From TrEMBL:
It comes from the Bacteria. Belongs to the DegT/DnrJ/EryC1 family. Keywords: Pyridoxal phosphate. It holds the Pfam family DegT_DnrJ_EryC1. Its cofactor is pyridoxal 5'-phosphate. This is dTDP-4-amino-4,6-dideoxygalactose transaminase. It comes from Nonomuraea monospora. Signal peptide: none annotated.
Amino acid sequence: MTLHFPNMAEPAGRTLGDEEVAALERVIRSGMLNSVWGAEARALEREVAELYGSRHAIACASGTAALHLSVVAAAPDPGDEIITTPITDFGTVAPILAQNAVPVFADVDPSDGNLDPDAVAALIGPRTRAIMVVHLFGAPAKVGELRRLADRHGLALIEDCAQAWLTELPDGRYAGTAGHVGTLSLQQWKHITCGDGGLALTDDDELARRMRLFADKGWDRAAGRSHESLGLNYRMTELQAAVARAQLAKLPEVVASRRRTAGQLIEGLRGLGLGDAETEPKTGGPKMGGLQACELEAGGVRIGLPRPDGHAWWLFPLVLPEGDAPGLAAHLSAAGIPARAGYLKEPLNQAPLWDAPVYGSSRYPLEDYRPAPCPEAERLVATTLLTIDWNEHYTSEHVKVITEAVAGYLGRP
C-alpha cells in the first residue's frame, strides 16, 4: 500500500481543529464580524508584533494585500522601479503594477533561487525606489547585504515572507524584521492559515500609518467620515482574525515539526553517499539561503542539498546542477511523492502578461518595457530546481520513502 502524504488541502495536512471552531463561535456569538469595531484583528496584530519583536503589525485581507500595503509604504511615483525576483508568485509583482510602478527582475543565486545581491546592485538606477526580496520556500535570503545596499542608495527594503513564517536570519532575528516592511501570508497553503489573510510588519510609525490608511479606504477613523488619502478596503474580518489567532498558537510546533523531518531527510540523502569516496558529501559547495550547503554526487547525478540553518521548510527544495530535476521529479511522483520540477511554469520575467495591456487598452507604465533575461532563474525553472511538498504531519516513514526513492533514481542500494 502506497504511503499517503498529507497535504494542506485536507484535514490530515492541517492543524485546524476545536480551537479554531471555538474561535469562530466566539466571534459569531459576539455579533461583530467586522474588524473596525471588533477585537480579534487588533489582538492578532498585537500577538504577531510581539512574536516578531516589531513595533507594528497591520492585519489585512491577504498576503497580496500586505504586499500592496508595503509598496504603498515605499511610495513610488508612477514609473518608478522596484527590483524583485522572477521566482515568486504573481502576488509579489501585482502590487507593483497596481501602484503604476515598474517591476525590474534581478537574477538569483543558482543554488537556492533567492535574490542575488550583486544582480540587484547592477540594476539600481535613478528610478529605483525599492527592493522586494522573497524568502523562497522558507530559506533565509541575503537580507543583510540587501539592507546595506538599500540604505546606501536610499531605497526601501520589503521582505516577502509568505513562505517564511519563523524563518531565522543569521543574526537571530526573524525574516521580515530586517527590511523596512515585512509581509506574512495566511493563505490556505501557508504554514498557518485562515483561508486568506495577511500582515505587514514595520518598526516605522509613518510607514505603519500609511499602510493602515490604505487598508481602510484612506479613512482616518479618529477624524470622522473624512478620507485623507487614496485607499482600498483590505480589512481582515474578525472571523479570519480569530482563526489566525488559534493557528498562531500552533505555529512554533508546526515549524519545529517541519524542521525535524526536513533534517532527517537531509541526513538520509547525505547517507546515500557514505562509504563511497566518490559520493562523500562535499563541503565548499553551493550557497543555500546565504549559508553553506552540501552537495551529493552519486550515479553521475549531482544534488545540491539545502542548508537547514534558519529554514522554515514551506517546501523542500533540491537543486540538480546538471539539469536532472524533471527526471527525478517524475521518478518521485511515480512513487507517490508530491514532487515537481521547476516550481513555476516559467519565471515571471518570461510570463506572457508583459505583452498584454495593463489598464484597459493601455500598457502604462510598461510602454516599451521588456523584462531583462535572468539566465540563472530561467535555468532553475527549466531544468535544475525540484521541490517536494512539505508538511508538519510528515513522519520518519515519509522521510524513509523519499530517501529510498531518491536512492532508486541514483541507482544506489
